[in-house]
Amino acid sequence: MSTVNDEETAAASAVPAPPVTRRRLLGAAGAAGLLVGGGSGAAVAAAARTEPTALSSVGAGRIPFEGARQAGIVEPAQARAHLVAFDLAPAADRRAAAGLLRRWSDAAREMTGQGPGGQGRPTTPAAYDDQVADDAGPSSLTVTFGFGRSFFGRTGLTGRLPQALAPLPDFPADALDARRSDGDLWVQIGADDALVAFHALRVLQKAAQGTASVRWQMNGFNRTPGATERPMTVRNLMGQIDGTNNPKPTDADFDRKVFVPAGGGDSSPAWMADGSYAVVRRIRMLLDSWDHLSVARQEQVIGRRKSDGAPLSGGGATTPVNLAAITGDRSFAIAGDAHIRVAAAASNGGAAMLRRGFSYHDGIGTDGAPDAGLLFVAWQADPLRGFVPVQRKLDGSDGLSRFLRHEASGLFAVPGGAGPGEYVGQRLLEG
Hints:
Elements: H1 6-9, H2 22-35, H3 41-49, E1 80-88, H4 94-111, E2 142-148, H5 149-154, E3 185-191, H6 194-208, E4 212-221, H7 254-258, E5 276-285, H8 287-291, H9 295-302, H10 339-343, E6 354-355, E7 358-364, E8 370-380, H11 387-397, E9 404-414, H12 426-430
Antiparallel strand pairs: 1-3, 1-4, 2-3, 2-9, 5-8, 5-9, 6-8, 7-8
């Protein structure tokens, strides 16, 4: 239940944007204070907020839509996200689905600055323009498309259904809402500006009218770039630094774990080459129960220090976990049911996945507790070798599971990217 380590994957972003650091903001505030001759704090803050930095920092971040692999998988998770599943209309067939994917791909191409005549600046298809994102740069916008298992039956493509898209098993602790699970099509939208993300969502919804309708939508967030003095791994809503032990693009076996190889694989057809499989879970955190624990007890449940994310076996945040470490009283430094022990690849036959999630908060639930937690998105070359064995272990042995509730779930085949003039899924729909 972790997100990508921003420090370790920032290089994966195609066009990284220089961060607006806390130090830079403080410097702007100091300069504003000199200009106003020691004016009020409110005036200083207002002056700092009007510094013309948007398009030279957060707004300028641009991640190309086109490429061998879809964007939104290895890039650091953005500050805002919308995860949306669509169901095809009853009369929609394979040809209609192909038309929709072409409209979606063309729209994403334009909104990320790769459209015709865009000259690197984001534009909007005229038929869907609502001007919500006018004046904004691309803000690291990514739009990622995937297919649910039901899509193949709806479009007459059951013969091309990947074995890896087999239904996820029932986990005993799940409390899943079928209305917020699965779907024919899945879209992940991420951006570092809330209006840019919302605009992309509205454009895709408009482009789908008559062909597909929204089945469910979930909205997430992460820390905004520049909110910390230096790039740091994000904290989740439990206050834990979350994502330190993610696979890294520099690992020799990273591609093998995350992406389907060229030509397909044992459980994936050739049209899935350079694609990946996304497991999406809405995981509610039982925050009131969690907050009643002492910090020391929380650290034992996770297996890491809350202050800096260092494993209880010693070292710093990025120090590899030593599962064999023993304390002075001859007990394991990392408890037997600690989350990082149970989830570790070494505890699961080497099974691993790239986790790239978003926090969510949907107000107060009927039980009076925060309806908040994690929109978990895990990427792997084969979920039967990635997510499934790890979740089976977590479901029965993880001490953290007492403070979590899995409320929605989906599995989607996310094909490779689109080149110039192509659309995502073209190899499937026209092959």
